[in-house]
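User: Can you recover a sequence for this backbone? Please restate the input before giving your answer.

Assistant: Of course. Working from this structure:
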């Protein structure tokens, strides 16, 4: 293991990488049935700390935390309801908790009860990401690629890319912006230089990360303005019906041109956040295009679906919705009412996380119940987008990492097959982009010195899943006593990995250590002591 170079920040702490140093952890191997490995990260500075134990001794595994040096440590989040939201409580001195007794939590693990396959983890390679990486020394670019996609990093296997521009570009753009009214897309014959730069970077990424295969999911934010009812990049605007087939052809041309550059596309969506151009235009000022579910069903059934399925790109998966949880499952019911066969063209359902704190996951459960054979992916997530949040990074914020930990745990307990985060990297402001839409990211680039990158707690929260839950893992039943308690600050989700070993991700959001009594249906009882404000991946056979 190459340890984290920890640096304290105003909001917490980050791991600093430069051209010659960056933290990595080799994939732990479980060689025999008596071995247990616990990988831990904590608010007090643990980052992927490896603790090993011997189950045959019967002794509990103790995870040693870094010692906090701040007597006036403040608790900045108390979970209220994992399904909905949490209450923020300030100025609770940790001294209040020091004398508290360590409670024991019982977790049962039933490997025989199996749920969904989990195979997809990744982030987005936007125009902003490409631009920032280009400014860095090659060695630092390589650390970004290795940190995300190498097995010694957090082992991402999938990227989300934009067809044309998005809100994270230096300007709005699309293919075939001219000539206008060009139904045959005569000017869409080659990839834009911005996409050619991305392909060059992705080839380097695959080489550095030693990836044989990189899955790419692509989505369009907007058609060129001449195809739209309002003839603008943003605002209230939908696709003109006379260009429905042209817009389907636009997607096919992109797939063909990417394939020709040996960068095949694994999946597309029906379009990013379709409600932005219907109801979201009041507060969304970046490029977007509106759809109602009835309109989109017609386009999918009559144009996009047949165009893709009857082409050489027929194996490309198509995901529907690509919008917020609150649209589920009604969006698909309305699509079906408009074109009864429209959903047959969808291989999967794509969800964005932005209002998950306010919308319970039962909406997703219902959609899954109605469409059980469709893959379910979270396809976009970031933090700092809400009016009540800091816009841009809170460098080193443990609380933002906890937001991710709770969200990933919840989604995987509700049948998701994978998760794609938003920008791989952003600068210190949370950009740059053409609308000053600043948010946070797992890795922040020092765009001033161009000599350092900062791995945030968010990065490690994601990595506790993506690194240790390889493709073709299957979620298994994990039950924690009092899991229905609205005030619980503990959570668990478990997976059986392809090699037969178990990976449990356990989150302790309390300001106290906790003893965990794991009762595995095949291994019996395993004891753990976990430090306060920490998360852990527990591996054993």
């Amino acid at each position: 293991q190459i340890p984290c170079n920890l640096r304290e920040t105003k909001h917490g702490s980050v791991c600093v990488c430069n051209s010659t140093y960056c933290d990595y952890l080799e994939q732990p191997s479980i060689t025999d049935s008596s071995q247990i490995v616990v990988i831990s990260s904590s608010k007090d500075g643990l980052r992927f700390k490896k603790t090993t134990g011997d189950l045959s001794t019967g002794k509990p595994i103790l995870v040693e935390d870094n010692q906090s040096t701040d007597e006036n440590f403040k608790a900045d989040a108390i979970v209220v309801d994992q399904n909905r939201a949490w209450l923020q409580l300030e100025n609770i001195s940790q001294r209040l908790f020091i004398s508290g007794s360590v409670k024991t939590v019982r977790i049962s693990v039933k490997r025989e009860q199996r749920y969904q396959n989990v195979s997809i983890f990744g982030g987005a390679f936007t125009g902003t990401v490409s631009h920032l990486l280009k400014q860095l020394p090659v060695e630092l670019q390589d650390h970004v690629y290795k940190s995300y996609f190498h097995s010694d990093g957090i082992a991402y296997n999938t990227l989300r890319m934009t067809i044309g521009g998005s809100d994270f570009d230096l300007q709005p753009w699309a293919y075939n912006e001219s000539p206008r009214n060009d139904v045959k897309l005569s000017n869409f014959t080659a990839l834009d230089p911005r996409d050619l730069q991305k392909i060059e970077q992705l080839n380097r990424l695959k080489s550095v990360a030693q990836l044989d295969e990189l899955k790419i999911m692509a989505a369009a934010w907007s058609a060129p303005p001449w195809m739209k009812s309002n003839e603008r990049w943003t605002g209230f605007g939908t696709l003109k019906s006379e260009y429905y087939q042209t817009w389907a052809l636009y997607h096919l041309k992109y797939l063909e041109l990417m394939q020709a550059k040996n960068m095949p596309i694994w999946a597309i969506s029906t379009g990013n956040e379709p409600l932005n151009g219907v109801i979201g235009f009041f507060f969304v000022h970046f490029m977007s295009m509106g759809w109602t579910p009835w309109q989109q069903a017609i386009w999918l059934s009559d144009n996009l679906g047949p165009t893709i399925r009857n082409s050489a790109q027929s194996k490309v998966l198509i995901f529907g919705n690509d919008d917020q949880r609150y649209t589920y499952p009604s969006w698909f019911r309305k699509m079906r009412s408009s074109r009864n066969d429209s959903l047959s063209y969808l291989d999967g359902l794509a969800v964005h996380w932005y209002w998950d704190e306010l919308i319970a996951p039962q909406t997703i459960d219902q959609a899954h119940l109605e469409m059980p054979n469709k893959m379910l992916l979270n396809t976009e997530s970031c933090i700092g987008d809400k009016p009540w949040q800091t816009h841009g990074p809170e460098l080193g914020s443990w609380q933002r990492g906890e937001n991710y930990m709770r969200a990933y745990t919840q989604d995987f307990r509700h049948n998701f097959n994978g998760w794609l985060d938003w920008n791989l990297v952003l600068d210190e402001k949370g950009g740059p982009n053409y609308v000053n839409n600043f948010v946070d990211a797992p890795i922040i680039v020092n765009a001033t010195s161009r000599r350092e990158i900062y791995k945030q707690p968010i990065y490690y929260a994601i990595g506790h899943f993506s690194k240790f839950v390889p493709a073709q893992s299957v979620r298994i039943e994990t039950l924690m006593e009092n899991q229905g308690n609205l005030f619980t600050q503990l959570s668990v989700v478990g997976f059986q990995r392809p090699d037969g070993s178990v990976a449990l991700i356990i989150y302790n959001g309390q300001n106290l250590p906790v003893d965990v009594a794991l009762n595995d249906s095949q291994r019996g009882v395993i004891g753990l002591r976990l430090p306060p404000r920490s998360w852990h991946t527990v591996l054993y056979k």
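That completes the design. The chain is about 20% helix and 25% strand.
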